[in-house]
Amino acid sequence: MAWDVVIAGGGFGGYYAARTLEKVLPRHSARVTLVSDVNFLLFTPLLPGAAAGTLEPRHVVVPLREQLRTTDLWLGRVAGADPDAQHLVVDSLDGRRHELRYDQLIVALGSVSRTLPVPGLVEHAIGFKTLSEAIALRNRVISLLEIAETVHDAETRAEYLTYVFVGAGYAGLEGLAELQDFMSDVIDLYPRCRVQGMRWLLIEAKERVMPEVAPSLAAFAERELRGRGIEIRTNTTVAEVRDRSVRLSDGTEIPTRTVAWTAGVKPHPVVARLGLPLTPAGRIDVDATMRVRGRDNVWAVGDAAAVPDPARKGEASPPTAQHAIRQGRRVARNVAAELGAGGRVRPFTYKTLGVFVDMGRHQAVASTMGIRWRGFPAWFLARTYHLLNMPGTKRKLRLVVDWTVSLLFDRDTSELGQLGHPPELDEHGAGAAGDGAAAGASGPPEAALRK
């Protein structure tokens, strides 16, 4: 009889768990099923590069079917679970509901953007957590440049040329730095905008940027950003977001049409519907082996699980890719041990080896095994590290080609917001052929940019 192993989530934790199970489980001894709402793994450290046009968006994702040889990929959304009955509830993309039975379950559902009860935030801000959000942000800033170039009033134009990022962690700092670098390259194509100039702001609630790295590295990163003309406001929060402005906690009103929200993450909401014990922070409560407390055959890894951090007593492992990768590998071997495939169940013992913060322009900060790097050496280390960790030789080669091309040629300024949103077949039938074609080729209307 073959065992049923189900993995909920196709992020770093789920992907590496499946990949490791393919290697350690004897052939035909188990059926491994990976449930994911998309058929790819997003390599999140490279998301800012995709947003800034340095990398082709398809090159920062890893097709799951291409990399997983014997795992059954089930495309759908996890809707819940019944641990007593040992089944996972999954809604397929066409709306059908299924119950997947399991002997061993690995929960690796990851996280989503953490929002706060700030008036207007959900309506007018944009996240920076998914590939679609990153590309939408790129399309948005390009569209705003196009609109600003047609605006004659300088004060109104300033709204379109002001960009606010909220949250100065990894995502916020890297995303802002890469996009600002990109916009600095392309603004020469817009004469009115070039003369007026852009305004970039980074808002952080804590005392300094990048609380995850050493103060000296954070200070270097802050000096680099300020040297580019980026305004950094620490000990500041957002009080309200409107369609044409943002109000800060100190009462400052900043006219802007773009607010990017990167203020942390939280476990995926469906985690609360799995019938598993949770910590006060909403993560699944697991022991050092990543086994869910009170459930012998359920395991949890990644951002959704409070895996004890070996480097910090009493704290959970940070929600980073390097921890999720190692957790996925270890939990797969633990599951294999439970199924009698050799070895024994072991605790998660990985400690952070280093951090990398790529700020574009050949600048970065990094810390590796106690050694602190800054400037070009850190940038080179960051790219090398990400290249080595990208699964698959073909994906690695595509990254090298993209990075090489970006060194030799200017970045593309096309706004492709229409991708995935084709017009209706009769959309152009109401007017003249020329007018219809022009309407179909235009970018998103101004009202859409306010959302």
Q: Main traits of this protein?
A:
disordered C terminus; 451 residues; alpha/beta; FAD/NAD(P)-binding domain; 7-stranded mixed beta sheet
Could you explain the architecture of this structure?
The protein is an alpha/beta fold. It has two domains: 3-113 and 266-338, FAD/NAD(P)-binding domain, CATH 3.50.50.60; 121-263 and 354-408, FAD/NAD(P)-binding domain (3-Layer(bba) Sandwich). Helices cover 33% and strands 23% of the residues. The protein is built from 14 helices and 24 strands. It has helices at residues 12-24, 47-51, 64-67, 121-124, 131-150, 154-160, 170-186, 191-196, 215-227, 321-338, 376-389, 393-408, 433-441, 446-449; strands at 3-8, 30-36, 40-42, 61-63, 72-82, 87-92, 97-101, 104-107, 111-113, 126-127, 162-166, 199-203, 231-233, 238-241, 245-248, 253-255, 258-261, 265-267, 284-285, 298-300, 305-306, 354-358, 364-368, 371-374. α1 runs parallel beside α10. The longest helix has 20 residues, at 131-150. The model is unreliable at 436-451 (pLDDT under 50).
- Calculate the mean pLDDT score and round it: 90
Count of helical regions: 14
Gross morphology: globular
* Portion in beta strands: 15-25%
CATH topology of the largest domain: FAD/NAD(P)-binding domain
Strand order of the largest sheet: 7-6-5-2-1-8-20
The biggest beta sheet, please? 7 strands, mixed
* Strand count: 24
Helical content stands at 25-40%
User: What is the structural class?
Assistant: alpha/beta
Q: Which regions are unreliable across 5 or more consecutive residues at pLDDT < 50?
A: 436-451
What oligomeric state do these chains adopt?
single chain
- Could you give the distance between the termini? 53 Å
